[in-house]
Amino acid sequence: MPPPAAALAPNERRRSGPVTRLAMAVAEEACALAGVKPSGLSVVFASANGDGGVIDGILKALSEPGGEVSPTQFHNSVHNAPAGYWTIGHGSIVSATALGCYDWSFGLGLLKAVSEAVVEQHPVLFVAYDQPIPGPVGTVRVTKASFACALVLDPDLSQQAMAQLTLCYDPQSTERADMPAHDGLRALAMGNPAARSLSLLTCLAQSRAGSVKVACQPGQLKIEVSPC
């Protein structure tokens, strides 16, 4: 269970769910590691599933006599809720984007975040997250474990930089995407869309140069990693 979001006021903290807390936790860690102030960063939040627990609760409520849905559930059901909580918690007035691109949310979200950083020439916080969906929806949209990651992407090379990333998007590519070599990490990557980031994260954690292919739809995103 992710910790309560310390940046949120008590009322918002009580309203936020596990998915929001998970996304905010990794976002806070990334900002701390990069030594940047969260309120000054544009953000891109990407999730394949959104908050499946809230959706399951709404569907259960609608199936009962009266079909009343609580305002908090409805508020938390929108796909940009975690990004909204983040901007509220940090008093941010810069741009915030929420993407849902099914199993390709990590690759397309990263492409969006890097494109914004390069074109607009400002740092961007990218967050990818997904959790299992309970109830009937979870039986047809299987997500086997919780996972989230966050990266601060800066067009300028800073002292805190772990690596330089060079991206090439090929909409025509049919090459197979890379998966982690470790059995456990590969199973996680296959069982959670946000964990498709693990091949890239492995390179970063090991300070290893390499090329990582991430599936998109259409095509593929190729990432060249050069450690700093």
From TrEMBL:
Beta-ketoacyl synthase-like N-terminal domain segment(s): 3-175
Pfam families noted in UniProt: Ketoacyl-synt_2 (PF13723)
Any one Gene Ontology molecular-function term assigned to this protein's record: acyltransferase activity
Protein name per the record: Beta-ketoacyl synthase-like N-terminal domain-containing protein
Species name: Acetobacter orientalis
